[in-house]
Write a structure and sequence with these properties.
It is a single chain. With 242 residues, the chain is mainly α. It has a domain of 81 residues. Helices cover 71% and strands 0% of the residues. The protein contains 14 helices and no strands. 29% of the residues are buried.
């Protein structure tokens, strides 16, 4: 997870695809060598599933959901099944109908991960739905909200997220007014549009920090996120020079 996160956040955009493929190849090799039914097999499968993008690998991942897994010994519990669903949704392979079918199979607490799968899809309508649910559902619990912004905010979906750059800063005021302090703080961090690095995010953050009416808890969150933005920009420049 740390390796994947480093590639997505700190690698130069021009290098990311090759680095992801390097991680996928490593994961596939380790998965093949792992003992059937072992914890290592499970860990490497989860990692591999989060990295696949080719039609062949995605088809293999779909077969896992269908019960025809090519990975001998792999036990598909409910949590792992939802992980696979989210990976396929992130790749744009399955739609809301397929996610609804999965939810019908598991209408339990773990089924709330369907929210992540819906929000993570590389689709403009999915992003609108997730943001709308977060802003309009005043009864939304912290747990469900975390699933929504966890799916909404994907570093590799820049083209989708950059369109919400200005909305994010206006949404802070609405959430601060309507929701609890804890929710507003988590929303500010969870929905911060890190995918828009290099697309005016730093400048927009600095402008927000100049506001004299910005609540102190939100100012603290923005300062923390700004540090990450600056670090990301510096490392991407360095990586591009190698």
């Amino acid at each position: 997870m740390r390796a994947s996160g480093a590639v997505e956040r700190y690698a130069a955009p021009s290098n990311q695809a090759a680095l992801r493929e390097q991680l996928r190849t490593q994961a596939a090799d380790a998965l093949e060598r792992s003992a059937a039914g072992s914890d290592h097999q499970l860990a490497w499968f989860r990692h591999w599933a989060s990295l696949v993008s080719s039609p062949t690998d995605l088809a293999a991942l779909e077969r896992v959901l269908e019960g025809a897994t090519p990975f001998v010994g792999l036990t598909m519990d409910v949590d792992l099944r939802w992980h696979v669903v989210a990976c396929l949704a992130h790749a744009g392979v399955i739609d809301e109908v397929a996610i609804d079918r999965e939810l019908a199979r598991d209408d339990t607490d773990l089924g709330r991960q369907a929210l992540t799968a819906r929000a993570i899809r590389p689709d403009a309508a999915a992003k609108r739905w997730a943001r709308g649910r977060l802003l309009e559902d005043d009864d939304l619990s912290h747990t469900l909200a975390r699933h929504l912004w966890g799916g909404f905010n994907q570093l590799d979906q820049t083209d989708l997220i950059v369109g919400y750059l200005d909305d994010y800063f206006s949404d802070l005021d609405a959430v601060w007014t309507k929701r609890t302090l804890d929710f507003a703080i988590e929303f500010a961090a969870g929905m911060f549009p890190h995918a828009a690095v290099g697309k005016g995010l730093l400048e927009r953050t600095d402008a927000a920090l100049l506001r004299t009416d910005l609540p102190k808890p939100l100012r603290r969150v923005l300062l923390e996120q700004r540090d990450t933005v600056v670090r990301t920009m510096r490392t991407r420049v360095l990586d591009a020079q190698d």
